[in-house]
Amino acid sequence: MTLPADAIPSDDLRSLLQGARRPILLGVAGDSGSGKTTYTHGIRRLLGNDMVTSIPLDGYHREDRAQRRRSGRLPLDPANNHLDLVEEHLRALRAGKPVEVPVYNHQTGCFDAPQIVRPAPVVVIEGLHALYQHLLPQLDFALYVDTDRDVKWRWKFERDVSYRGHDPAELENEIQRREAAYKQWIDFQKTSADVVVKIHESDLGELAHQQYDGPVPDNCYHMEIVTAPVNLHLPALHLPMNLNAAMEADARPFMLAMVPSSYWGKRVNVTHIDGVTPIEAIQQLEEEIMALTGIARDLDSCLVSDEAQNSTMRLAQSLVAWPFLGKVRCLLSQWQHEDLG
Ligand SMILES: Nc1ncnc2c1ncn2[C@@H]1O[C@H](COP(=O)(O)OP(=O)(O)OP(=O)(O)O)[C@@H](O)[C@H]1O
Ligand SMILES: O=C(CO)[C@H](O)[C@H](O)COP(=O)(O)O
């Protein structure tokens, strides 16, 4: 939809969202350990923690870990989840009503007491089945995280053994059983997403064929942000880079490519990033986004710590957050127009 320029609200997004007629719902699907929480983290950081409620769908599993061990069923099976209850809750949240969310505790493998969740202006619904067909009409924006199997299994294995108390041998066995289940029940959801994040091992060696022979920096991945073309109605967004850095002796590898492409029969734009994004570039980019969202540096208490985030991950998070913020702004303009009309 094309809106006239005067329909674009001039106030910052935080203030507008606080007065919006209803919460905005963002669905995030992908496999376990694919990085769903990590890649929506930017929206939280750039809008402010107080503006976002997250609801993990793991609480809607029908069986806890011990029950699954006995039944042999996997949480990826949609029939092993209360997706009807998810739909009911999304409707309520969209209407601004609180819901009683079931909670799954990954440390114990058991369900905890349910929690009352009141929707913040943005509600993130995150889980294996978040973009299932009957849930899509309740969502305003859909994100899918599609991480290559070796990468996601490595992340999952490390996390599940260190923080979720899984037995390594049992987990390895379960991961193998998950392969086919993922293809059958989860993977197809990417075809409905507004943005897909694809994560591969770093391709620095391949991309700079026979040129780059340095070490691949730690935590460095080749990420593709696949975005359906949109008319963003947002101010220009810059990635300012000091090109001198590329000519100095200690230059670090960084690749950025923007490639119009096609994805499951649809026209898309794909932004590829790999290597180490210069930190000043990402800081300035985030400043520009914060000027739009209206989050101030003095709201530090609302900001989520950046320590664990590397600069290229932050660039990927911003590239996910930006089209989402574009959609938010478009909805707010539409509602403002309707209220005036
Ligand atoms: N780019 C990255 N670099 C390094 N580690 C990463 C990256 N993205 C995610 N991880 C690691 O992978 C693990 C899983 O990430 P995350 O919690 O975001 O996944 P998830 O899809 O939300 O998982 P789940 O649904 O199982 O809770 C985390 O331990 C995180 O630190
Ligand atoms: O697919 C998953 C989504 O995160 C988990 O495996 C599921 O939630 C069960 O958790 P756990 O393996 O810790 O018992």
TrEMBL record:
The pathway that the record names for this protein is:
Carbohydrate biosynthesis; Calvin cycle
Top enzyme class, one word, equals transferase
A single Gene Ontology MF term assigned here is: phosphoribulokinase activity
Q: Where is the Phosphoribulokinase/uridine kinase domain?
A: 26-198
Q: Does the keyword Nucleotide-binding apply?
A: yes
GO BP of this protein = reductive pentose-phosphate cycle
Keyword annotations for this protein, in alphabetical order, are:
ATP-binding, Calvin cycle, Kinase, Nucleotide-binding, Photosynthesis, Transferase
Which domain of life, per UniProt? Answer: Bacteria
Which Enzyme Commission numbers does its entry carry?
A: 2.7.1.19
Q: Which InterPro entries match?
A: P-loop_NTPase (IPR027417), PRK (IPR006082), PRK/URK (IPR006083)
Q: Does the keyword NAD apply?
A: no
Region described as Disordered: spans on this chain: 58-77
Q: Which reaction does it catalyse?
A: D-ribulose 5-phosphate + ATP = D-ribulose 1,5-bisphosphate + ADP + H(+)
NCBIfam families, alphabetized: PRK07429.1
Q: Which PANTHER family match?
A: URIDINE KINASE (PTHR10285)
Name the family: Belongs to the phosphoribulokinase family.
Q: What is this protein called?
A: phosphoribulokinase
This chain's source organism reads Aquisalimonas asiatica
